[in-house]
Structure formats: C-alpha cells, structure tokens
Amino acid sequence: MFYKFLLSIFLAAFISACSTTPKDTAGSSGSGSSSSSDPASGDSDILADLENTELGGPNIEPGSQEDLVVNVGDRVFFGYDSSELDSDAKELLQDQVAWIKQHNASITIEGHCDERGTREYNLALGEKRAQAVKNYMTSLGISSSQISTISFGKERPAVVGSNDGAWSQNRRSVTTVN
Amino acid sequence: MRKFLFFFITIIFLNNKVLSLDLTITQGSIKPTPIAISNFFSSNDSTFRIGKDISMVISDNLERSGLFLPIDQKAFIQSSKSLAQGPRFEDWKVIKSQHLVSGKINKKGDKISVEFRLYDVFAQKELIGKKYETTEKNWRRVSHIISDAIFSRLTGDSGYFDTRIVYVAETGPKDNKQKRLAIMDQDQANHRFLTDGSYLVLTPRFSPNSQKITYMSYIKRNNPRVFIFDIETGRQEIVGDFPGMTFAPRFSPDGKKIVMSYADPKIGNSEIYILDLATRISKRITNSSAIDVSASFSPDGKQIVFNSDRSGRRHLYITSLDGEKIKRISREAGSYYTPVWSPRGDFIAFTKQEGGQFYIGVMEVDGSNERMIAKSFHVEGPTWSPNGRYLMYFKEERTAEDGSGGESSLYSIDLTGYNERKIITPLGGSDPAWSPLLH
Predict the structure, then answer these.
(1) I need a labelling partner for B20 at 20 to 30 A (CA). Which of A37, B51, B184, B347 fits?
(2) Any idea what the CATH number is for the domain that residue A121 is in?
(3) How far, in Å, CA of B216 to CA of B227, rounded?
(4) A132 touches chain B (CB under 8 A)
(5) Contacts of B396 in chain A (CB under 8 A)
(6) What is the widest separation between alpha-carbon atoms in chain A?
C-alpha cells in the first residue's frame, strides 16, 4: 500500500513534468485539481488515484503523538474559570484511555488557560485542569505513575486573538505522549 | 514656561480620559512644585561633564515623580560657577523657583567628591548640604542618592530613586513568547538581561537586600519550579524539593523565608506554603479544595494576604502564618487577584477584573476604601515603590486574529491614580518588581 502510494507520487510527478504545457492550457479552470482533465487520458486515472490516497494514514506510527492526534484527539476544552469535565470531554477522554491502555503509553497532560485572569491564578487553574483529566483517567484504570501533569497557565495559547473563539480553544488540556 | 503649559495640557487630557471610565478611577490633583537644578560645578575639565549629567539625572527623577517641575536651565540667571559660591536668591525668585539645587565636584586622584545643597528660595535658607566621596563611575548612583535626599526633605516621604526594577522582557508571537529575566535601574539605565530566553521565566521578585531574585522557571522543561537567582554570581538554585509545580513566590520581609504556591500532585490543587530557606522546612498555610495563590507578606512578616476562589469567586484573604484565622477582605463585585501589601503597611494593591476590563486598585488592609487607579483591556501585577507612594504594573494590548497587537509594557503610577507613565524598555515587558532602596 505504502509503495503504491510512493509509486503514484512518482508517476504523477513524472507525468506532470512531461505534460506541463498542454495541461496548463487545457485545465486552467480546475484550480489546481486534475479532475477536469480529459477522462479518456491515462494521466487522469493515476492523478485521481493520488487524490484518493489518504495522506498520513499508513505513515502514522501506532502509539505515537500523531496517532493520538489523528485517531483519537489530543485535547479537551473547559468552561471559563472551570476545571470541570463536561460530557464531551469525558467521551473523548474515554477514547484516550482506551488508546493509552492499548499502547501502554506514558503521558503528560498539559493544562492551559485563556488570557483572561492573572499569570499566577492561571498557572493554578491550568494545573487544576490537568489534574482533573488525570483523576478521570485514573478512575478509568490508568495508573497514576503513567501520567504527569504540567501547567502553562496562559503562556502558550493554541489560538491567538482576544476574542471568544480563541479563548474557548485556549481553555484546554492537551495529552502528549512521553 | 512652555513646559509648564504642557504640563497642564497633560492633566486636562488625563481628566478627560477619566470621565469615560465605568468604575470610578480616583485621581489626585497635584500641582508640581517648580524647582531649579543647576549643573554641578567643576573647575576640572574631565568632571565638568559629570556635573551636567548628575544635574540631568536629578532633574529627570524629580520630574518623573510628578511632584516637581524642573525649570528650564535657559531661564537661569545665576551661573553654576557663581552659585557654587552661594546663591543670589533674588535671581531664583525672579524665575519663580520654589527650591534650588546647587552642587560642586572636586577631583582627587581617581576619586571625586560630590557636594550638593538644597535651598528654599523664598525662605532664603539652606535645607540640606551633603557631600559624597566616590569613584567617578558611581556618579549615577550618587545622583539617585541625592535625588532621594531632596525628595525626602521636600515631601516628607522616603525616596525611591536609588532602586532597580526586575521584570520579564518579552519578544515573539503571543503563542510562543520568548521570556527573559531583565534588570534595570528605576530610571531604565543600566539595563541588562539575566537569562537567555531559552526557557520560560515568570514573576521575578527581589529579596529584601536586592541581591537575589525569586521567580518561576521552566528551565527543567516538564517541572516548572520556583528558583532563586543570585544577581552577583548569576547562579540559579531551585527552592525546596517538591514533586509538583511550585510558583508565585515572594520573599519574607527578613529574607529568610519564601511564600509560594505548591500544587501537590497527590491533591491536584494549589495551596500556599512557607519555606524556611535555612532549614529547608516547609509549612503548609492553606487547606481548601479551592485555588490558593499569589501570597504576599505584611511588612512585619506576621500575616499574608492571598488570592483564593474558595467562595466560588476570586477574592482576597488575609491570614496569620498558622493559617488559623482566614478573613476575606475584598467586598465588591468582580474578580480580585495578585494582592501586594504596601511596604508602609497601610494598603493592599491588587488586580481586578470586572465587566471585560482589568483594573489596578488599592484598598486599606481591612478591605475598606477600595479605589481603582488604572484601567485597560488588561492590566496586571502591581508592585510598590519602597516608599509606598508609587506602583508599577504591566499593560497588555488586545491581540487581533492575525496575531498583531498583544504588546505588553510596563507602567508606573502615583498611588492616587495620577501621573501614569510608560516605562520604556528595549523589548516588551511584564511582571515588574520594584527593589527596596539600595542605600
């Protein structure tokens, strides 16, 4: 599967290199996509195949951070000035727990806050969020020795901007694989 | 005279700003006293320049205090050479100078002696006369010490010019700010960086002798802890041996203890601890399921004021060191943070959040007479000048979605909410801490 993927990239590169000029004139409306090429041409079958190849899927190493991010989700979100886990957060953490058990992973949970609040209070709140996640995970059978926590307070927002959208994405815990 | 007019324009501008605020910001109206500061006279060519520089440093210090209005030297009638023999008070009355500062510098080998006199022009009498012997390179500190003597004699408060500021210098985008400890004189001279920015540093505070700084550092990346930085040697030392995060440190007034928050991994919540630096024995002060953070000692070292959300809202509390009698002092609506006890013992300065705005405020120790003195999208972290008359804090601008804005800068302000000034630093600035008087 992986070789087929590489081969398709190679072929696509080779073919497009051979046919740059005619394709540019023929399919300028395609906005970069090859789908508007002549269906009768052999080129388009290969390019279509390339488009359908799931990027990353076969490349992800099981048990890696990327695996967690792509296949489970690495973060949960919190309400303003809250370290309580809502049902969405718990659902995602249940999946994380299953994943951690499957890979017997050691993890660090980062706690983060939005920019409203003082530096020191937010360090405490970030730690409380990370601990809330840790406690939930241990209640589901993960050993506390597998889990470390760290708070970044408001120091490392995921999204910049002084607005509700950014703030809601910054009030988070992020699970990272050690 | 032009400077005088400019001053009144500034005051009017500030007053207009005040009218648009939601919470009432109190603001004292202070009429600064005109003062003439002559160049310190020297017959020696090599110290002539120093005489001018000393005069300028004193003049800038007094002007920044908001209480004095140094008169333009172009208006002076009597020369500094003649003044060194004694003042002709009539010449200073004519230019409406209430006070007069004169000085002399004599060079003796590699040392200089700096002599100054402060006069009351209308009473026609000398108020202070003092002489300092020092090496030439110390001229700037001598200028601050003289400024303190003048300020103290004329206001009745102790001075605050011979002091330093430690703070966090910031560069880079909001989501990946590089932060370095930096130190400078109170007037922004002698600026230098103490750490290289390769790890996060937060909330530095001076020891009572100003030789050490306690702060929080991510130098051990996954284990942020409280450290002590020795300014002389550059050595950093971790404070205590705690398995979880320690943060929000401050020295006790005798310098022997540190109060800080500790998030015990077994409990998962921040409590206030006091660590004895000699015995390394730590003592837990608070015991609640709430966040307890940002503790600050009273000047007598017998109590602490701290920030807690134990009532469900963020308020300020005072307790004795045994943690027995915990009393809430903040009373109004909004969220309170970062209480700091005044060195005079009379006020608590704090950060307040209400209605989408942040404020710097002060209240009396029992929580009465709460007043807001500065307001912005975000202001935080007041620190007192050693005479308890001024505050410094930082202000952060809004950040736009494209990442622009978000700059952070230091500001100083009079306790009455008058004379807010931006402190110019080479990079962005946050988390300022004012040192005690160095002399």
Answers:
(1) B347
(2) 3.30.1330.60
(3) 6
(4) yes
(5) 115
(6) 66
